Amino acid sequence: MRGRESGSRLGGLLLRLYPRRFREQYGDDLLLIFRDAWRRAGSGPGAALERLGLVLDLLRGATAERLERSPASITPTRARLTMRDLISEFRQSVRSLARVPGFSLAVILTLALGIGANTAIFSVVDGVLLRPAPFASIDRLTMIWETDRKSGTLREPASIPDYFDFQERTRRFERMAAFSPITVTVSSNAGDAADAERLAALWVTHEFLPMVGITPILGTGITPAQDKPGGPLVALISEGMWTERFARSTSVIGSTIRISDSPFTVIGVLPASADFGTLQILGMAAYRRGFADRGGPTRVDVWIPLQADRVNANRDNHPIFVMGRLTPGANAAQGQEEMTAITADLERLYHAANDARGAHVEPLSAVVFGGVKPALLVLIGAVGLVLLVACANVANLLLARGAVRAREVSVRAALGASVGRLTRQFLVESAVLTGSGALVGILLALGGLRVLLALAPASIPRVGAVGIDARVLAITLVLTAVVGVVFGLVPAMQARRRGADLHLQSESARGASSGREHRRFRSGLVVAELALAVVLMVGAGLLIKSLWRLYQVDPGFQAEGVLKAEFQLPAQYPQRRSDWPRWLEIRRFGEEVQRRVAAIPGVASVAIAGAHPLEAGYTSSIVVVGKEAEAADWPEPSIRLVDSGYFRTMRVRLASGRALNDDAEAPPVVGLNEAARERFFGTQDPMGHRVRLWGIERTIVAVFANERFHGLAQDASPALYLPASQAPIPNGSILVRVNGDPSSIAGALRSAVREVDPTVPLHAIEPLTVTLSQTTAQRRFTMLVLGVFAAIALVLAMVGVHGVLSYTVAQRTREIGIRMALGADRESVRGLVLGQGVRLVLVGLGIGVAGALATARLLSTLLYGVSPSDPATLGAVALGLGAVALLASWLPARRAARVDPVAALRAE
Amino acid sequence: MPDRLLPLPPAWYHLLLALMEGERHGYALMQDVAAESGGRVRLGPGTLYGALKRLLEIGLVVESGRRPDPLLDDERRRYYRLTPMGRRALAAEAARHLRLVELARAKRVLAKPRTA
Q: What is the 3-state secondary structure (H, E, C) of A720-782?
């Protein structure tokens, strides 16, 4: 489907190259045929060649129409376009360029890198940021977060009673809707773990889909009646699930699927775009991020009516995310103003539950794109610099060749060739160069885009829908073509301006002012290239250092050697509130899994935890007995349920106190992390103090080192550890420390759990190091891309330095010969050329470092533990660039030193 | 008049030959030329319309209306057919080819054909 679309888009673009009259008369038919042929080309490498043939054919046709060539010269293309044909097509124009292969290759590769990198990056940016969102008028959609002044959090989910109060009181929002993430087990038959899948799901209110403007592609949405507490069990499924599980059969509507062991009737199928932004919204939340904490590119597959119970829901409990649609004409600031007033009212009315609570209204697009925008903008800037460097380099190369040919031009002009004819010749040559560069560039863009998408982290919204953007390609092509043509024409212009005889004059004309002026311009270009390369290298260096700093961070636990598997116990495990924390069956499941998994060969230790160490989990308000007054401004700590194997398995250090291995009958105990000790007790010793949580008083018996459960880049927030024996774990993670490769025991782990209970499926099984690396995926991506750009810029700048110095040496051969004849030794000649290189590099470095200092601030949101003006990075870049530049200068310098004075003086 | 056009560019020759079967739209022409030449001649869309434009200008071909092709899709396509002059030009070109082939035979360029 995308092939056809890109076919007609590309066709439309190519059609523009035709004269207007032709287009008006034949355009639509031509396009139709182009599209037909494009579609029929199919897929695979043969198809790519076939399509390339189609594009070339249109380009040929357009050129012929533009030039109004005589009809007889139109010949049909031969049968299937082969590689050999391609080569022969190019052969003729390439022949003259082939005589200077180094030059041609340098120009083509430079152009290709510029075009390819730009097209790839801009296509990503276009697909992710610029393309319209699947939601209707997204500019009026906002997230309505709750805030907590005590913990300083700005993005918390809301309580159900608050949501209904918001809805009732608002005038600025024409609609509000709520949703909540869960992970569900979906199966066709009850109790069949083999058929069961763990899928991401959303509870949504009936307003949600109409509010964002998503309509089911099959069936219906959720009615208000279906959204009432105790309403029917109905669900919508994703297009993906419809395809995979139901082969796109329309009979899915009305059929029954089992979701977490209850029968649900499927009422509709939602398009693939329906979960737009879900991962980004959840990823921003302070807690209750659900499946977004998995880090991977999770797709939402099931939507279930929230059926929120306004009367019985607890105002202390914050399970839902609220989204609102502003009334036409209202803006987010007005929405914020109103929500601040509403939450202030609710705080007065429900002081116990809503103390210190406010609202934070944030445009949805800021939430969805906010996380990636800085990185993508930096990459756009960087790729723009790469294009500038590429253009400077092409200009430089063409000028160098033009200078070499100046004499040839003069001779031919003197022999009667018209300037127009010469101009045409140069133009054709430029066209061949830019054309080849463009072709290679398109291939690079296609390949590069594929690589980019493979590396792209899941945090980038709708990255799956990115394709090459024809507009971007066209703009880049035009830009580079302009550079190619303008600088390709320079020698002809020089011939026109100065008259034909200048370069035929005596040798002395060579070293004269025109040559110097020319050289100065080219040196300027090289300095610009060097400076831009420095800016890019500093940027890349800072990102590399940030990542390195991040890897140096002690996360407080050891992920290496640990396999993680997530589970959720099905509904037949009784979880009655009144029985808590007895919950015998759940405890038994945990103990049994402990026992069986520990027996697997190669397993060093096993833990069961409510949240694995990279999962933020949930928070709850607590009271420390005797500190009730202070507790008013305490942030809610994260509540972490862990069994007795946890600290051993994760190698979390016990800072003080004793292990948490009390059994169910022992007096209730709790452990703190160091952040909680510091926040709640300051310099006081917390041991023996009592904490009240969920109606139970627990004695503090241990303090553990901080685990960075918000990811490496964020400090740990206060946390409480509850032993599983006294707070059973109905869903969470099994963590297994393995001697050797952790993934090797995945199969054994599955069967061990199946032996305990075949109805419990495991999901998200992966080494914890993989989970950890996902938390840095976006940084790695940005760093990698910027690093590649910096490398490209460096190579291009070196080509520039080498080119300018070689040109100087060639131009000054006679002068060097005279110097040597007059007694200058090879050392000093070499020094002369090297000196020129060093001057270029120093000026380039100076400007580049200044530029880097000015622009590195733009990177600051992407940096970690390193300042934008980090002297070590600047120094390393300066040294590195200097060293490479000296190498690039060395070759021409050596050539200069080898000049034979006799030959140099006799020449010409 | 047709004689002045000779020799016809190969693309024209193939197109006129394909139109001998009756009126065709552009895509069908592309396919017919490929099929009749055993896949050896392929006209891309650009070449095809470049040639068609000239054939229309000179008057060897006329447009015969727009309608969808029931075998393809609902898009309305332009159909083309030969004019009497187009037919004459085609015949003249074919005769020219024949004379050339006979000349080649006389000089034994080709393997001797079996006597009929």
A: EEEECCCCCCCEEEEEEEECCCHHHHHHHHHHHHHHHCCCCCEEEEEEHHHHHHHHCHHHHHH
Percent of chain A clearing pLDDT 70 (strictly above) = 87
State residue A77's pLDDT score: 41
Radius of gyration in angstroms for the set of CA atoms belonging to chain A, rounded to a whole number: 34
B115 domain residue, yes or no: no
Size of interface A-B (CB pairs under 8 A): 98
Does residue A637 sit at the B interface (CB-CB below 8 Å)?
no
- What ipTM describes this predicted complex? 0.83
- Segments of chain B scoring below 70 in pLDDT: 1-4, 111-116
* CB half-sphere exposure, A687, CA atoms < 13 A: 10
Contacts of A71 in chain B (CB under 8 A): 9, 12, 51, 54, 58
Using the beta-carbon criterion (under 8 Å), do A76 and B52 form an inter-chain contact? Answer: no
- With an 8 Å Cβ cutoff, is A34 touching chain B? yes
CB spacing of A36 vs B27 below 8 angstroms: yes
Among B115, A235, A345, B99, smallest CA distance to B107 is for: B99
Count CA atoms closer than 13 A to A427's CA, side-chain side: 7
User: Residue B74: which domain range?
Assistant: 2-106
For residue A291, give the 3-state DSSP assignment: helix
Q: Residue A570 is encoded by which pair of tokens? A: 């099905």
In a domain, B112, yes or no: no
* Amino acid identity at A896: A
The structure tokens listed for A451 are 């690589």
| A451 in Cβ contact with A365 (< 8 Å) | no
A479 against A677, higher pLDDT: A677
Average pLDDT, chain A: 82
In a domain, B116, yes or no: no
**Highest-confidence segment of A79-93, A356-370, A412-426:** A356-370
Cα-trace Rg, chain B: 16
| pLDDT (tens digit per residue) in A241-278 | 999 889 999 999 999 998 888 899 999 999 988 988 89
- Tokens representing residue A409 in the block: 């031009």
Contact flag A25-B43 (C-beta cutoff 8 Å): no
Per-residue pLDDT tens digits for B17-35: 999 988 888 888 988 888 8
Distance of CA B106 to the CA centre of its chain: 27
Determine the distance in angstroms separating the CA of B104 from the nearest CA of chain A, rounded to an integer: 23
Q: Inform me whether the C-beta atom of residue A60 falls under 8 Å from chain B C-beta atoms.
A: yes
Closest CA to B25 of B56, B90, B69: B69
Instruction: Establish if A64 touches chain B: CB-CB under 8 angstroms.
Output: yes
Q: Cis ω on the peptide bond leading into residue A581 (within 30° of 0)? A: yes
Tokens of A901: 């004075």
Dist CA A492 CA B34 (whole Å):
44
Find, in chain B, the residue whose alpha carbon is nearest to that of A65. B50
A 10 A CB-CB count for A626 gives 9
Beta-carbon separation of A76 and B75 below 8 A: no
- CA of A236, closest CA in chain B: separation in Å? 34
Classify residue B53: in a domain, yes or no: yes
Say yes or no for a CB contact (<8 Å) between A57 and B75. no
Candidates A32, A75, A77; nearest CB to B77: A32
Is pLDDT at A828 greater than 50 in this prediction? yes
What percent of chain A has pLDDT above 90? Answer: 26
Most confident of A226-240, A424-438, A478-492: A226-240
CB A568 within 8 A of CB A801: no
Structural domains in chain B (count): 1
Where residue B65 sits, what CATH number does that domain have? 1.10.10.10
What pLDDT is attached to residue A80? 47
**Whole-angstrom distance, CA of residue A10 vs CA of residue A14:** 6
**pLDDT higher at A12 or A675:** A675
Chain B residue with the nearest C-alpha to that of A64: B50
